[in-house]
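Entry: P-loop containing nucleoside triphosphate hydrolase protein
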Amino acid sequence: MTQIGRRGEDEVVETNKQIRTTAATSTPSKTFSSLGVEPSLVAALKAMSITSPSEIQERAIPDILAGRDCIGSSHTGSGKTIAFAIPILQSLSKDPAAGFCLILTPTRELAFQIGSQFKALGSIAVPGFTHSVIVGGMDMISQAIELNQRPHIIIATPGRLVDHLRSTEGEVGKWNLKRCKFLVLDEADRMLTSTFSEPLAYLINEQLPPPSERQTLLFTATVTEPVMGLAQKTHPGKPKAAVHLCGPAQINLPTALKQFYSFIPSQVKDVYLYYLLINLCNLTGLSLPPKPKPSTSQSQNYRKKPVKYSNRAKRLIGEDEEDDPILNLPQTIIFVSRPRTAESIHLMLESSQLPYQIPSRCLHSNQSQNKRLESIREFEERKVRVLVSTELGSRGLDLKQVKAVINWDLPLDPNEYVHRVGRTARKSRTGGDEDGISISFVCERDLKVVLRIEERIGMKLEEIKLEEEKVLEFLNPIKKADREAQLELDEMKFGEKQRINKLKYSKKQKLLKD
């Protein structure tokens, strides 16, 4: 698996066409039972309000149940985790002691999310079901204890798993990967990059059983050459992997997603962002989210204190509760490129300098793992309506009811754009498509990036124009709020610890080379 075949783009596209043609001729099943899923798991799915299989589930589940290796691709939010979780749990339920499943993910947050889904299903389907999430930022001793208890499912980031294996190397009777029955690479396009090549090679070449003795499953929303290269590999005694590419070749965007862009001067991006947030539904036509009941504790979390409107704000957002921009704000993720940007936008939106504060949370690599999980949980529970995130939030996270994605910074890699905007317009549990929008801020130097994105997704983004005169009504309070945020970050020496660690690592690497 570590020697990935490289082929020309034309050959990849042609292979995709051949595979897609074969898949299109099959008659899709309509129920999980007709796919061969056992009643206990069907009941577990029903308890999670999942009543009918999505396209990727219809295609992948029968092949995985039959013991075939499988490569599956479909747009974000289409139920890829369920597509491999159900057949794995069904197999383990028949013989829980036969082996275990290892799922590798690129991010800690995705590992925890997959763990929660397996827990919900496995506790019903597998007697004495256990699982363990092995990621960085958590206590290694407690993780080692969990691993030595031989859980049925291990969900891990490659680096932390390698740390555990190397720390016990040579010790007799310690936990290892030799009994691994299933290997799953989730977000496979990212797993098969240079970032994970070293730990992945160590795990596959030195620790895991050979391909002929395990079932290997790859799932992704983005088809890349390395992924398609694996589709062509064969192993003695095993058929070629079943490949299921659902949706338009190599695009895989939600069908209900509307994609916009807005030309914005870089020096006033923050002002435009604020105006956009308090007018999001009116500007985009999004349906309003259900209003929380005033008596609930949840509704009290939308703001820290009562708001006093300025005269200018009254003219734009009104005084009536029906015009309350927070209660009318859908669940929104703002994507940025740097941790400091995420933190500063979060602080700015909550500043008392603003005519209307917008409670938010942020998600970035400078946070502790517990803080990251807390931010995700509060956003999921709708205690806040806005999550400001770096790329940590773009991969695999299934955050319900996200209606809008705003790209504060455009990603240089068009594939990352696909993953970002895929956080919205996701498949509902009853099988229908939720509506959702994405809005990308385009500044003076972003034209080439936009063209690459449009080429990647095969369509033009639609322009949304914001009225400059109305936007600039908020210029002074926003700039005051931003200055306060920057001062607060400077006072707390934000990012200093990470900068020092980076310097230490660079010096260590230089010494090793010398």
